[in-house]
Amino acid sequence: MTLPSRRAFATAAMASLLVSCGGHGAGQDTDTAERPRSTPPPSRPSAETGGPAEALKRSVPVGIRIPAIGVDTPVMQLGLAADGTVEVPPIAADDRAGWYRHSPTPGQTGPSVILGHVTVGAYGEGVFRHLARLRRGERIVARLENGKAAVFTVSTVRTVAQADFPTDEVYGNVGRPELRLITCGGPHTSDGYRDSVIVFAALSSASP
């Protein structure tokens, strides 16, 4: 699979700060907007679990289930908007998560990135409203287009200031199949949410 350059990943990473914050995505008009502010240092967490699972073939995700926080949502595909920022799921009553299609599919080697809202304006709470409650060892199941399910185990849940968004940790290359879930968190002001919530997980198994 051909992936965008590191610069495109960095652009997408910083643009992902808009997710779940009432920010502007492609074709959206919302009340407030978060703006990216900086590029973070090039370090990476270790998403260690009980042991790596064998990488899967490419297959687009169609749904994601997170039993510990009651998430069971369809997954749409997201790309880059004309201005170079990453698209985000639409602000709508039927809120759902979105897979950034320039990242690996869940189960492929590398970091697969899925974005979701914490709030959806007048419609209330978003699909990733409880993402920060996830804990190490809990499961995330990505349903794939080919009928398989990629099962990930959470290694780390981080809440970081949006000014310090860890671009390389989220989008940088890794040598095994991993998953990143991103939403907003922390205090909410008239300008939007202050922080980003990032879940790091590694593939632990796959089911037919």
Automatic annotation (TrEMBL):
InterPro entries: Sortase, Sortase_dom-sf, Sortase_F. Residues 1-25 form the signal peptide. Residues 22-56 are annotated as: Disordered. Keywords: Hydrolase, Signal. Gene3D superfamilies: Sortase (2.40.260.10). Pfam families: Sortase. This is Class F sortase. The lineage of its organism: Bacteria, Bacillati, Actinomycetota, Actinomycetes, Kitasatosporales.
